[in-house]
Structure formats: structure tokens, C-alpha cells
Amino acid sequence: QVQLVESGGGLVQAGGSLRLSCAAAGRTFSTTGMGWFRQPPGKERESVAAISRSGGSTYYADSVKGRFTISRDNAKNTVYLQMNTLKPEDTAVYYCAATRPFGSSRYPLDSSTYDFWGQGTQVTVSS
Fold it and tell me: Reduced to 3 states, what is the DSSP secondary structure of residue 31?
């Protein structure tokens, strides 16, 4: 079991920045692929970004490329999402997700890849 706790959400004006963090409990963090997803109000959950176990590979949804950066610190059991140049359409509940240890990350931006989910953190971008 992997427990995930997101933090860093809040209210920001358009053009601003936020950094989300996701802390994972347990000793298997370096063996799990990690992803960020979001669910805008009234819409379905969508992928945002993903990162491989080592951090050597990253993946982004087209809507956030060039604005968001995913990273991880395996020594701190934490994955981050740096969000810059935020837009009102980035408003959503953001969730981090983890694969099971040594689980497949063949489709890193597909939610079905992930076995464990955090509770979410709200990001609101005002215009």
C-alpha cells in the first residue's frame, strides 16, 4: 500500500505560479512511477504529467507543456508539480498517483496505469 498526501494548492491569479507536492509514505517510493492528474469542475479527470521511477523520463499533456514541470526527490519520497503561467482553465482538483512497486508504466499518462491515489488538492486560478 502506498499512501499519498498532496499539498500546495490554493488560489492564484492568472499568470501566477504554484508548486504542488505529493508526499508518499513507505519505503518503495523509488520503485513507483508517479503521475499528476486533475479534474476540472464538471469535467472528467485528465492527465497532467508523469515521471519515471528514477526521474529520468517525464511526460506531459499537451495543455501544460512548456508551463508545468514534474520532478521527484526519491530521498524525500516526494514528487512535485511546478506550475507556471497558470490559466483559469487550469482550475481543478489535482491528484497525484503512484503505480504499485515495479509496476508497469507503459502508458504513463493513462490513469489506469496507477494503483494508488491521493485525496487531491484544489487549485483555483482567477482571471
Answer: helix
Cβ pair 97, 112 in contact under 8 A? no
β-sheet bridge partners, residue 68? 83
> Is the model's pLDDT at 1 over the cut of 80?
no
Using CA atoms, how far apart are residues 127 and 119, in angstroms rounded to an integer?
Answer: 26
Residue 105, pLDDT above cutoff 90: no
| The dihedral sign for the CA sequence 69, 42, 23, 47 | negative
Q: Say which residues have a Cβ less than 8 Å from residue 119's Cβ, sequence separation at least 6.
A: 4, 5, 6, 95
d(CA 127, CA 109): 28
CA 123 to chain centre: 12
Whole-number percent of the chain with pLDDT over 70: 100
Q: What is the pLDDT of residue 17?
A: 98
The tens digit of pLDDT for each residue in 34-43 reads 999 999 999 9
Structure-block grid coordinates of residue 88:
483559469
